[in-house]
Design goal:
This protein is an alpha/beta fold. The protein is built from nine helices and nine strands. It has a six-stranded parallel beta sheet, sandwiched between helices. A three-stranded antiparallel beta sheet has the order 5-4-6. Strand 2, helix 7 and strand 3 form a beta-alpha-beta unit. The longest helix has 16 residues. The chain is globular, with a radius of gyration of 18 Å. The chain starts with a strand and ends with a helix. Bound molecules: adenosine-5-diphosphoribose.
Length: 230
C-alpha cells in the first residue's frame, strides 16, 4: 500500500464546531496567545491557563468528528495512512483513524510538571491549581506551548520523508517546525492541499489545491487518489 502522510490543522475540526486560531473569529482573536498558550503565560498565571484548557476540554466532549475526519479514516482501506496533526483534539481518534501523531500535544491529557513522562488521560474532566501528580507536583495540560520544544518533530519528519503522497488539510502553515514538514516530503511525492481559502504560505513545489472545506474536500481527494492509485 502507498504511504499517505496527512498533516492536519485546526481547519479540519472547524466544521465540528471547534474554532480555528487565525480565521476571523478565531481563538487568537478572543485570547492573548502568549497569556494562555505559552510557557511564560503558565509561569505568570497558572489559573488562567488551566481555565483556558478546561473550557476547551469541556467543549470537546460536546462536538463530534465531521465528514472530513471520517473520510480520512476510511482512506485506511486503500492506503497506509499516517496522520500528523497539529490539533490537540481527539476527533481523528474518534473518527476511527489508527496512526495519529500529535505534534502539539493532546487536550484530553495532563502531565506532571516535575516529570514529563508522567501523563494522565483525564478525557474531558477539569484540573485545578493544587491538583498534583503521583510525585507531588502540579499537573499541567499535555500541550506544547509557544516557547517549548516539539518532542515529536523528528518522528514526524521521518514519517514525512517516507511519504508516497503528502496531503495538507486545514492549516495556515504559519507555525514552525510543523509547517516545515512539507519540505521533508520526497520531491517525487505529489502534494495536495485541502483548504477553502487561498494558500498564503510560500510553497516552492507543485500543489494540487482542493479549494473546499474538509467535509467535502477529503471525499474529493479520496476519489482522485483511488482513481489514480487503486
Ligand atoms: N476546512 C478546511 N480548512 C479550513 C476550514 C475548513 N472548514 N476552515 C478554515 N480552514 C483553514 C483556514 O483557511 C486556515 O488555512 O484552516 C486553516 C486554519 O489555520 P490556523 O487557524 O492558523 O490553524 P493551524 O494552522 O492549525 O494553527 C497551527 O498554531 O496556534 C497554534 O498550536 C496552534 O496547532 C496550532 C498552530
Amino acid at each position: 500500500m502507498k504511504k499517505l502522510v496527512v498533516l492536519t490543522g485546526a481547519g479540519i475540526s472547524a466544521e465540528s464546531g471547534i474554532k480555528t486560531f487565525r480565521d476571523a473569529g478565531g481563538l487568537w482573536e478572543e485570547y492573548d496567545i502568549m497569556e494562555v498558550a505559552s510557557i511564560e503565560g503558565w509561569h505568570k498565571n497558572k489559573e488562567l491557563v488551566i481555565r483556558f484548557y478546561n473550557e476547551r476540554r469541556k467543549q470537546l466532549e460536546t462536538v463530534q468528528p465531521n465528514a472530513g475526519h471520517i473520510a480520512l479514516a476510511e482512506l485506511e482501506k486503500y492506503f497506509d495512512v499516517q496522520i500528523i496533526t497539529q490539533n490537540v483534539d481527539d476527533l481523528h481518534e474518534r473518527a476511527g483513524s489508527s496512526n495519529i501523531l500529535h505534534l502539539h500535544g493532546e487536550l484530553v491529557k495532563v502531565r506532571s510538571t516535575l516529570d514529563p513522562s508522567i501523563i494522565y488521560d483525564i478525557r474531558y474532566k477539569e484540573i485545578q491549581l493544587g491538583d498534583k501528580c503521583d510525585k507531588g507536583s502540579q499537573l499541567r495540560p499535555h500541550i506544547v506551548w509557544f516557547g517549548e520544544a516539539v518532542p515529536e518533530m523528528m518522528n514526524a519528519a521521518t514519517i514525512a520523508q517516507h511519504a508516497d503522497i503528502f496531503v495538507v488539510i486545514g492549516t495556515s502553515l504559519n507555525v514552525y517546525p510543523a509547517a516545515g514538514l512539507i519540505d521533508y516530503a520526497p520531491k517525487s511525492a505529489p502534494l495536495f492541499i485541502i483548504d477553502p481559502n487561498p494558500i498564503a504560505a510560500n510553497i516552492f513545489r507543485k500543489i494540487e489545491h482542493i479549494k473546499e472545506k474538509a467535509s467535502t474536500g477529503v471525499t474529493r481527494l479520496a476519489e482522485i487518489l483511488k482513481d489514480k492509485y487503486c
